[in-house]
Amino acid sequence: MKNIKKMITVCVLCVSFVISAQEKGDVENSVLWKIEHPDLKQSSYLFGTLHMICEDEFSIPEKVLNSLNNVDELVLEVNLSDSEEMIALQKEMIKGNKISEDLTAKQFSDLDAFIQKVMGLPLQNFDAYGISTLYSMMTSKMLSCTNIKFMEIELAQIAAKKNVKVVALEKVSEQFGYIKMAYPPLECYRLIFLFEEYKEDFNKAVRLYKQEDITETTRLISQDKYMNAHSRRYLLENRNINWVEKMAVMMKEKSNLFAVGAAHLTSKDGLIQLLKEKGYIVTPVL
């Protein structure tokens, strides 16, 4: 039960990386981008994060820390430093159908054998959370280490020490709503059995991200077998459009460091292109 509670705490951060795949879009190799506009008094920044990484490989680029020194707010996808959002997270994870209600007895049995191998626990332990939440939890097992660092948590802690306010682009309830619309139960069931394949691509993506190659990082995790047009629409395209509108309002009032999954930056529907279409000057910080 202790292990399950730990996985619940990191669930949103884990799933954010899994769902941050988009169709390939070439951008320059940088995880940090400066946002400017003639009407803005101050510049803002856009940081494409890798949500989780092994502790011994973890680092925050110096240029990102420097940008945090020069902004009024740190803006995350969701704000898990907010205690009310943590409570909402735990409530969201037990909403909806049980896994056993969405699968046949045969499917449940087959999945049980697989989950015991990957998670070290029987499927019954996860039944109440639903299959989309189980899929989210499994991403914590993709890295080869047990000591994992989460970029957003680390950034929020640094921001707190610097008295930089932490806010969010969406609520936990919104994010879970997108996840459930994007991944119906049988699609989650199919994806879970691709765990070993995705794990291999995920770890390749980690290595490429450390080189700031966000285009190739995206390509690895955006293959058709991992994401279809339906899931892309709900998890990426719609969210990016919503975020750009919110970012425009935020930047009029204050300077911000927006920290979101790296692949939200790339492609024709990515934040970099959408911001440029709105007249912003978006340039890589190299």
TrEMBL record:
Swiss-Prot/TrEMBL keywords: Signal
Source domain of life: Bacteria
CDD domains reported for this sequence: Tiki
Signal peptide feature range: 1-21
Protein name: TraB/GumN family protein
Organism: Zhouia spongiae
